[in-house]
Structure formats: C-alpha cells, structure tokens
20601_t:CDS:1
Amino acid sequence: KAQTETSNESLVEHDINIIEKFLLVQETVQSTDIEPETLQEQTADLKEETQKDNIAINEEALSSEKRDLEDLTENIFAKSPN
C-alpha cells in the first residue's frame, strides 16, 4: 500500500509538472500573439520578396541560356561548309 501511495504521489507530481509546463507555454503563446493584419502584411512582403528573387533567378538563367544558344549557333556556323 505504501508503494502504491508513493507511485500515486509520483504520478500526481508528474501531472502537476505537465500542467505547469502547459500553462507556461500557453502564457508564452498569448504574450507573443501576432495581430492577423501584421501576419498578412508579413506574408505579403515575403511573397513579394520571393517573386523578386524568382524573377532575378529566371533572368540570370535566361541570360545564361541565351549565351549558350549564341555559342551553339556560332559553333554550327563555324562548322558549316559555307
């Protein structure tokens, strides 16, 4: 019986620790709440930045592909018998 009581006390202590951690997390979440408008603005900004990055990457890739095509064209004309 004494062992069961100790085991129960241990479980209660464990439960209390879990509840305390939950409350701490809940408090942290509430204190760091972000307004929906702010979140929407940040999301819009990120989308805009991503689009700009993608455009820059695409322009760079197109420029590289254009050079490759120009080189290929030069090689074809250089190898042609005329």
About this structure: The helical segments are 2-31, 36-79.
